[in-house]
Design goal:
Blueprint (H helix, E strand, L loop, with lengths): L2 H5 L3 E12 L2 E13 L4 E5 L6 H8 L7 E6 L4 H6 L3 E4 L11 H16 L9 H7 L15 H13 L5 E5 L7 H18 L2 E6 L2 H7 L2 E6 L4 E7 L14 H15 L2
Parallel strand pairs: 3-7, 3-8, 5-6, 6-7
Antiparallel strand pairs: 1-2, 1-4, 8-9
Helix pairs in contact: 4-5, 4-6, 5-6, 8-9
């Protein structure tokens, strides 16, 4: 990595727009997105359905090309960052292979990297250690059908971390979980983020989740998808669930709700 890349923001967007074309015409999914994300920052993306939150993640991940504007990921284009395996992605569905154990699912990206590139990037931790990091020590040999929904999502997070990404993209990964499990995983995610120091972009439809997790919340409006406001979250980095009962947290969520009403 060059010095310029090391000093660059983790993600830098200028005027990023995405237009999709269908047989019924075109749809502007994103329009004119400007954003700088610093290395190690946790950004929540919040907005109504159809505002382009998931589309934006896919642009960063090089899964969708922008129709206009420019984007740099760790100082290079998204394709170069993807090929360097700088980006991890966690989807709403854990998408584990049912015939592989939890440990074997986490090992899968390393096997693919070895087959494609001849070697995998050295990880901060082994697949077994990553399962322990996400709270699944002792479940290494369990198959997906033997795990709860929350446990399967923990496996998917460990799998995304195994190639040692510098940026973790999370597309509403806890949206299908019950509230108690979701709360527990919110706390666990913050702990893992603090330990590993990654940059995280986290898509959610939950105002409370966005405020609890993010250092900033990027509020997106729909039709077309665009940045309505970027709200700083003035809460300590080391957060516990009881912070949601404080006046400061209530004020933040009330502000987010007011913005969301006009998005």
């Amino acid at each position: 990595m060059t010095t310029t890349e090391a000093l660059a923001p983790a993600i830098s967007c200028r005027g990023v727009s995405v237009r999709f074309f269908t047989e019924h015409g075109s749809v502007m999914a994103l329009k004119g997105v400007d954003l700088d994300v610093e290395a190690g920052e946790f950004i929540s993306l919040l907005g109504p359905s159809g505002c382009g939150k998931s589309t934006f993640l896919r642009v960063v991940a090089d899964l969708i090309p922008p129709s206009a504007g420019s984007i740099k990921v760790l100082g290079v284009g998204p394709e170069a960052a993807r090929l360097r395996r700088d980006i991890g992605f966690v989807f709403q569905d854990a998408a584990l292979l049912p015939w592989r154990t939890a440990l074997e699912n986490v090992e899968l990206p390393l096997e693919i990297a070895k087959a494609k590139f001849g070697a995998a990037r050295a990880s901060r931790a082994s697949p077994r250690e990553l399962l322990a990091l996400v709270g699944l020590k002792g479940s290494e040999r369990a198959y997906p059908h033997e795990l709860s929904g929350g446990m399967r999502q923990r496996v998917s997070i460990a799998r995304a971390l195994v190639t040692n990404p510098r940026i973790l993209l999370m597309d509403e990964p806890f949206g299908a979980l019950d509230e108690i499990t979701r709360d527990r995983l919110n706390e666990e995610l913050l702990r893992v983020w603090r330990e590993l120091g990654m940059t995280v972009l986290f898509v959610t439809h939950s105002i409370h989740e966005a405020a609890f997790l993010g250092q900033r919340v990027m509020m997106l409006a729909a039709n077309p998808g665009r940045v309505q406001e970027i709200v700083p979250i003035s809460l300590p980095a080391d957060r516990r669930l009881d912070i949601r009962e404080t006046p400061e947290f209530v004020q933040i969520t009330a502000r987010l709700r007011r913005i969301l009403e006009i998005c």
